Amino acid sequence: MIPELGQFALVLALLLAIAQGVLPIVGAWRGNGALMAVARPAAAGQAVFVFAAMGILIHAFLAYDFSVAYVADNSNLALPWYYRVTAVWGAHEGSMLLWVFILNVWTVALAALSRHLPQPFVARVLGVLGLIGVGFLAFILFTSNPFLRELPMPADGGDLNPVLQDPGMTFHPPVLYMGYVGFSVAFAFSIAALLGGELEQSWVRWARPWTNVSWAFLTMGIVAGSWWAYAELGWGGWWFWDPVENASFMPWLVGVALIHAQAVTEKRGSLPAWTVLLSLFAFSLSLLGTFLVRSGVLTSVHAFASDPRRGLYILGFLVVVIGGSLLLYAIRAPKVATGKAFAALSRETGIMVANLLFTTAAAMVLLGTLFPLIGDALNLGRVSVGPPYFGFLFVLLMAPAVLLLPFGPYLRWGKAEGRQLTAMALRSGIAAIVCTVAAVFFAEGRLRAIAGVAGAAWVAAGTLAYVVKRWREMPRGRRYPAEMAGMLVAHFGVALFLIGVMLSESLSTERDVRMAPGQAESVGGYQFRFDGVRETTGPNWRADEGVVTVFRDGTPMATMHPQKRTYSRGQVQTESAIDPGLFRDIYVALGEPMDSGDVEGAWALRLYHKPFVRWIWLGGLFMMAGGFLAAAERRFRAKKAAATAGAPAKEQLA
Amino acid sequence: MRRLAMLAALCLLPLLAFAQAIQPLPFRDRAEELRFQHLSAELRCPMCQNETLADSNAPIAHDLRRQIFEMMQAGKSDAEIKAYLVDRYSSFVLYKPPVEPQTWLLWFGPLLVLAAGGIVVAVQVRRRSRQAPPVAAIDTEDDW
Amino acid sequence: MSRFVPLLGFVLLVALFGFGIWWNTGHDQHEIVSPLINKPAPAFSLPVLGDETQHVSKQQLLGKPYFLNVFGSWCIECVHEHPVLSEQVKNLGLPLVGFNYKDDPKDAAAWLTEHGNPFDRVIVDRDGRAGIDFGVYGAPETFLIDGKGVIRYKHVGPITPEVVEKEFRPALAALAKEGG
Fold first, then answer.
1. Do the Cβ atoms of A383 and A375 come closer than 8 Å?
2. A77 three-state secondary structure
3. What is the DSSP pairing of strand C66-71 with strand C141-145?
4. What digits encode the pLDDT tens for the residues A506-554?
5. Do C10 and A326 touch (CB under 8 A)?
6. What is the Cα–Cα distance from A128 to A139, expressed in whole angstroms?
7. Range of the domain at A444
8. Within this chain, do residues A47 and A125 fall inside the same structural domain, yes or no?
9. Alpha-carbon distance values, A508 to A242, A587, B29, B31 (Å)
């Protein structure tokens, strides 16, 4: 009975979403206040029913209700409760429900925090979000219903894919979706602005904090996913350029461009059409990712079970949402160049160049991801596009971005002062050279490591120099507005990320070794002694667990326990052991006994020494923190009156 | 469809004893080991199709790694080893597609986008900087 | 007009995705089209199942077209295609050579006893090396090799009656047309 209630709740949510999507937009068009007033209550109602459906699905998992096919497929009696909750979004149907759930979280937040905005504008924004909700709720109800019954009810269920039975996986999808779906807010804002025809600066100011927060969530989600792949897949890699990863990376790249473009449009009034277009792109790419992952048009390691019917539905949905919004853009985007004039050497130009680099990178990722399909379509034969392609071109496109990044804060709006730039370049250049010379001694001539240190030192020195400059020149309390602090933290994160990527990629050592109990091997200056394999059990698995003692210069550093787990449904999963450190990770994965079945004998092991690998995620976390921090800018929260008063004040300054 | 499911199952679950990505091989020296790691990371496993040969648990990946190792021992160059695999498994196994007319779009497309975008940016900047001369005096206000 | 460029790009993308959905209904993404088709089959000399001292080479099989079916006792799908192999494929009238891939000969013999042996002869590629020369990457796979020893057709995955009608028969007809 309860699962049927869940389905019923989704039907009611769909009806309310239709109301939310149609009436307020009509109201805003006709100037009918009563219709516009429908937006908030309808959004609240939709949220209540979607939250109820989510609660019911979670309950079905917790209560082992195997009469629900989705529950039976993805959980069993032995699965611990926390992974039964994770299993809710462990497969297609539930993850779509999570998508809608998060859409409603954003909608409710927006409805609650938009009281200071003009009513027609809010009505349009909530209306657009309602229409997106209609599309996804209908998709769930007609093609991917998680509440379908399976009768007779099986005594026990299948299993959640063991790869997903990891704390990282509990966390990764909801956070990633917070980012993906969050871009729907910026999308709805720009659609509302296009519909309203009032393409003034104000909508961008309102949209900025939402964009920053979604981008920060997306960053966090990608970091969590990367960490999960590193810890769980057992390959020691942290990014594979898989279509699914690319699907999340494209909106991220466009998000970077969007955050910067919004700053230009908000403060200087320039690039309004480009900002609208980027908002449309960011969310379109999020939707595109959903399509790519679920339609089965591309092969991927962790694609969902594909189904052409679902693919067609999502494609139709894409045509309506993306096609419709791009058509609206083509018709209604502002045609005259607005905003204040700027010189060739100015922050506007700098941001335009950065935008170009980031959107080109996103286009490159899209092209590489889709090229195998293009190859099929144009009969070029089957082509594989993998890490060597993406890695090469991405570095090529991002190298100028890294070079230009420290100049950003020094570039003034309108017209930059060349003297400041050269002073900064001189200081950071010296810092970079000093660090590079130091790195040459440690990196043993490995060019990538040296380039990484040079780039990171350049970015970090330039960013820190600006921190110092502000500290010296500005009075206390006005030194670091939240928006600027966010920018500085995020830019500093780039330096950390560079160190992490370049050093771990070039200095890591990996060895596959055969080890008999008592035998020792040396990797990256550490000695690994294999002390045999023992049996161990967990809530829903049993495992062969290797014992490896790690020594440095004869002193024991750590005892590591890599496992080879067999889950309750017979799936085998390698569980690597990691000894983390700020400057290096030690990573051990257990393979198979060398003579099949002889567990007492020698085993195959993979040993890694990965210097600075943690800085990759540390850098990502800095970028995320920067996003959140910038969103806290007081100016964004100012009431309508203050916000409009602020803009002319600025104009007088410039 | 069923075969697809089976492939997926095989990729995720190394049920077979010989299916294991961790494969200790008797390399002559560290340089050879690095060369092997680099080469096998540039090749795609024909079975578990989104994994490199280096990472894949599929039985065929195991065999191909062994084959690559033996060819390296026999003094074959990377290009010869790649050609050997392409002859048997088509250019599908190359994760780094060769630059040839069919892949020009792939390799030069992004640069084309960059060039086109660069022109647009340059034109915009030129037009805007001519429109009205920006204030020459640098104000010391906090214009952040 | 430049405002329509993004829309235009999107239309192209939609066309590509539409193609992708259509294409994938008819093609298995996991299938790699073999570059060996219409090329001479690789030379091999492999022991016969049950009598390891005896070898069968490519030369010995020249003169008449035959099917080469890659199978293994560990292969789940081979069980599913087995009835089709024994009936429809057998009825096509060509010799059927079993290629026992990466298997323990004892397990293979037991498997053939259990399910029945549709093969005229079975050769053993225990370590999968000959398989690599044939571009085999899993089982089951089926090759059609003509009398001159040229690979004419390859099917990846289990054979279904539909595959026999729609692919095997036309391939054979093409062979017959040449008088091969």
1. yes
2. coil
3. antiparallel
4. 899 999 999 999 999 999 889 999 999 999 999 889 999 999 999 999 8
5. yes
6. 17
7. 417-508+614-654
8. yes
9. 22, 11, 17, 14
Subunits with 3+ C-beta pairs closer than 8 A to A: B, C
Q: Is residue C15 part of a domain?
A: no
- For residue C35, give the chain B residue with the closest CA: B90
The number of residues in chain B equals 144
Q: Do A333 and C16 count as a contact with CB atoms less than 8 A apart?
A: no
Tens digits of per-residue pLDDT, A325-381? 999 999 988 776 678 888 899 999 999 999 999 999 999 999 999 998 898 888 888
* A315 touches C at CB < 8 Å: yes
Q: How far apart are CA C85 and CA C95, in angstroms?
A: 12
Q: Which residues of B touch C77 (CB under 8 A)?
A: 2-3, 6
Q: Where does the pLDDT of residue A437 fall: very low under 50, low under 70, confident under 90, or very high at 90 and above?
A: confident
Determine, for residues B128 and A341 on separate chains, whether the beta-carbon distance falls below 8 Å: yes
- Residue A348 tokens read as 């506007």
Could you tell me how far CA A561 lies from the centroid of its own chain? 31
Report yes or no: A495 and A459 within 8 Å, Cβ to Cβ. Answer: yes
Query: From CA A456, how far away is CA A451, in angstroms rounded?
Result: 8
Same domain, A585 and A654: no
Does B98 reach chain A within 8 Å, measured CB to CB? no
β-pairing verdict for A572-575 and A603-611: unpaired
> Which residues make Cβ contacts (< 8 Å) with residue C122, sequence separation at least 6?
C48, C49, C50, C97, C98, C99, C100, C108, C112
Residues A341, B131: C-beta atoms closer than 8 Å: yes
Strand segments (E) across C7-84: 45-48, 51-57, 66-71
Contacts of B133 in chain A (CB under 8 A): 341
Q: Does residue A546 share a domain with residue A487?
A: no
The Cα A293–Cα A306 span in angstroms is 8
Q: What is the ipTM of this complex?
A: 0.89
Contacts of A384 in chain B (CB under 8 A): 44, 91-95, 97
**Are A579 and A464 within one domain?**
no
Contact A327 C6 (CB under 8 A): no
**Of B25, B50, B117, which is closest to A300 when you measure between CB atoms?**
B50
Last residue of a domain, one of A150, A165, A180: A165
Query: Among partner residues C4, C14, C19, which is closest to A377 by beta-carbon distance?
Result: C19
Set of chain B residues whose Cβ sits within 8 Å of the Cβ of C127: 63
A318 touches chain C (CB under 8 A): yes
Contacts of A254 in chain C (CB under 8 A): none
Q: Which of C34, C138, C158 sits opposite B47 (nearest CB)?
A: C138
Q: What CATH code would you report for B22-97?
A: 1.10.8.640
Q: How far is A105 from chain B (nearest CA, A)?
A: 32
Residue entry with tokens 């695999």: B85
How many domains are contained in chain C?
A: 1
Domain edges within chain B = 22-97, 98-130
- Contact call for A386 and B138, based on CB within 8 A: no
Could you tell me if residue C64 is inside a domain? yes
Number of folded domains in chain A? 3
pTM check: above 0.90: yes
- Structural domain including C122 reads 32-178
